[in-house]
Structures are given as structure tokens and as C-alpha cells.
Amino acid sequence: MSAREFNFDGLVGPSHNYAGLSFGNVASFSNVKSASNPKLAALQGLAKMRALAARGFGQALLPPQDRPNFRLLRSIGFTGTDAEVLAKAAKESPVILACAYSASPMWTANAATVSPSADSADGRTHFTAANLNNKLHRAFEHEQSARALRAIFKDEKHFAVHDALPGTPAFGDEGAANHTRLCKDHGSSGVEMFVYGRTEFDASAPAPKKYPARQTLEASQAVARLHGLSAGRTVYIQQNPDVIDQGVFHNDVIAVGNANALFYHEQAFADEAGALDQLRRALAGVGADLNAIRVDTARVPVADAVASYLFNSQLLSKADGKMALVIPQECQEVASVAAYLDGLVAGGSAIDELIHFDLRQSMRNGGGPACLRLRVALTDAEAAAMHQGVVMTEALYHTLVAWVEKHYRDRLDPADLADPQLAIEVHNALEELSRILGLPGLYDF
Ligand code: SUG
What we know:
Strand content: 15-25%
Helix content: 25-40%
CATH class: Alpha Beta
Oligomer: single chain
Bound molecules: N~2~-(3-carboxypropanoyl)-L-arginine
Strand order of the largest sheet: 2-1-15
Subunit structure: Homodimer.
CATH superfamily: Succinylarginine dihydrolase
EC number: 3.5.3.23
Number of domains: 1
Number of strands: 15
InterPro entries: AstB_sf (IPR037031), SuccinylArg_d-Hdrlase_AstB (IPR007079)
Number of helices: 17
Active site: 174, 250, 371 (nucleophile)
Distance between the termini: 41 Å
Radius of gyration: 21 Å
């Protein structure tokens, strides 16, 4: 059956800020406590969605989440009216207030893991909301992520949305950021590749020493079970613990795949040869040949890959059979990466085009083009069955730009999170957004 990939980009929420909440994510730590520009962040993300939709790629969005998370703040002992809760949290623990306000759901690659209907035992598209339990500010996203996914993919004949795995370290799950589907084409059975950073129940397995490994093997296996994936078409690969310690906190910071192509860094995996061998054998079973596009350390050191987010790119199939690489503009600014990319597109590989975007507001928190999107391959019938109000069109783009201009601030300092007016502004913005998207029950205000 033919299918088309949709990228569901996260619409950046009005409380986008730099709070330095992600230990192990170099950019988040470097920009801690600087002022953000939520309006610009949202407009940068919308510009990417619009441009890719205009090129004919399947493009939709996932909405921002309700912030601040008053339920979290009240559950840890901040009491009183909303304004009192905010004032007490700001005084006693500004960092927890920042967690409750984080706009991190914009990075929808972490919202869920998705298996298309061609891969699952029951022929439905499966989603498992990611528990993101490694970081406080992300660990409560899954409730609203599952809610939004259920609102968009409501038809149970086609779709199954699973709740997050148990929120405990053994099941650390970061969603599609560590999951890649390789295939001959989007509509036929593919190979699902899960990359994990550590194994909970094998103390002898290698693990990073400095920064956390957010994804466990046990979580990846649980998601594969929930989705009814076949063992022969599911591959588990260990991430190289040394690169996690260099700031590669998700596999999508060091590798990206599309169709039969895997674009990856030499140091991405703990056992490169073993990983490629597993993938080649699994892909042979679905009639595809792996096209491994390896970037050597000598050409691009890991530090440059992290600084530029070369691999946090989108690899998109074009109508002519070639692929475009959607990159952040930082790739043009890091000399080794810019030189590598010039050679790549000129050199006759499957990738013959670069499309770059200014996503600097998100990049400063460690979120590039690939973090900002969740891939969902859908047949025509499935695409017709999903909620249409989130599909990017010229009209929706203009409506959302006007909505952002009306509701978003153009500067947010860490201290502004204590301003009770901000909570009211976010609430009003989201109420209007649920009407724009035609999802009236989206928020549980
Ligand atoms: O989880 N940054 C996010 C970036 C997520 C990127 N996603 C993928 N690679 N798929 C994170 O580390 C920073 C928030 C702050 O510091 O304010 C943050 O959460």
C-alpha cells in the first residue's frame, strides 16, 4: 500500500525560555538564564513548516502544552491561588518553576515513538507517548502528548495510542529521538531500529560516565512489544557511550535515517560494524539494501557535529527519488561541516539538496530540525482519518502567525516566569489555539 510521511512539528509555546534544565545537553547548559524570544521561536518553527508544506512534503503540527503545570506545583506543596502558587515557587525554587513552565514539548521527536501500520501486527499505526523520565521538566509531558495524539488520531480502526511506559529509570524512554525506521518505501514493511544508551539489567554493558543515557534497552523492547513489531524486523543498537559523554544526548544528534539511507557519524554506535550488519540483514528481509552514508571523524569531529547539529537534520524523500537534507543554519557556520556538506551534495550520493532554516531560538536549547518533528507515515486512508485541523496549509500558517503576533512576548527573562500575568497570557493563547485547530477538548484547563 502506498503511504506518505507526515512530519508533525511542535508549535513552540508562549513560555519558551532558557532555564538550563537538561544536564548532558550542551546547548541547554550553555545558554542558561539568557533571555529568550518566544515570538521569534514560534515564527521560526512556523516558517520551516510552511516552507516544507509548500514543497509538497506532508506537514502537520502538534500543539504546545498548557503551562505552567499547576498540578505539578501543587503536588509538591505550593498552595493557594494560582498567583500565590507562582509567587511561592518563584521564591523557594525558581528552577522548579522553570520546569513547570518549560516549552519543551516543542521537541516532538520526543513526544512518542511511532510505528506505521505496515509494521504492526494488527495493521494499525501505533504511538507510545514517551515518559521522558530523565528530566523533571519533561517527565510530565506524556499526559498531554497522549491526549493530543488521541485527539488527532482518534479513529481506533486505524490508530492505537499507548500511554507512556512506567516512569522509572529502567524504562527511560525518549520516543522517536532514538528510533529510526528504514524501509524500501514508506508504505511497505520496514525495519525499526531502536538505539539505546544503557541497559538497566546488565551491569556489565557499557554506559556513559559523565552524562546520563536517557534511553534504556528495556524501554525500547517494551515499545516494540506494545506496537506488535516482528522480531526479524526490529533491531536494537547500542549508542556509543563516549559520544553521550560528548553531548550526544539522543541518537538523533548523531544519526538520521530515511527510506534505505542511514546518514551517521563514524562514532555513533558502540559497535559500528555489528550495527550495520544487523541492519543489512534485517533490510534484506524487506527487499531493501542499506545505503550507509558514513561521516568520518577526520572530516567532521564529534564536537563539530554537536555544535552544528549536522545529524539533527531531516532527511526527506523527494518525488524524483533523491533526498533533501533539512539542516539548521549553524551547519553553514561550522567550517568542517560546511565543507563536508558541499562535497556530499556534489558527490552523487542519495542526498542532492540542502534546505537550511534559521531555528536559532530552539537550537539554543539543543533542538534542531529533527527534534522539532515527529514522523508519521500514513496511508491515504489513515491520512484522511486523522484530524485535519493540524495539517499545515497556507491559510493555517497565516492564522497562526497572526495568533503568535497577538499572544506571544518577544522577550522572556528567567525572572519573568514569576509574573502572574504570563500564566494568564499563556492560558488565553491556548484557549484560542484549540479553537483555531478545531480541537475544543484539547486542554484540560
Ligand atoms: O530534552 N532541551 C531538550 C532538547 C530536546 C532535543 N530533542 C531531540 N534531540 N530529539 C532536551 O534536552 C532544554 C530546556 C531548558 O534548558 O530550558 C531542553 O529541554
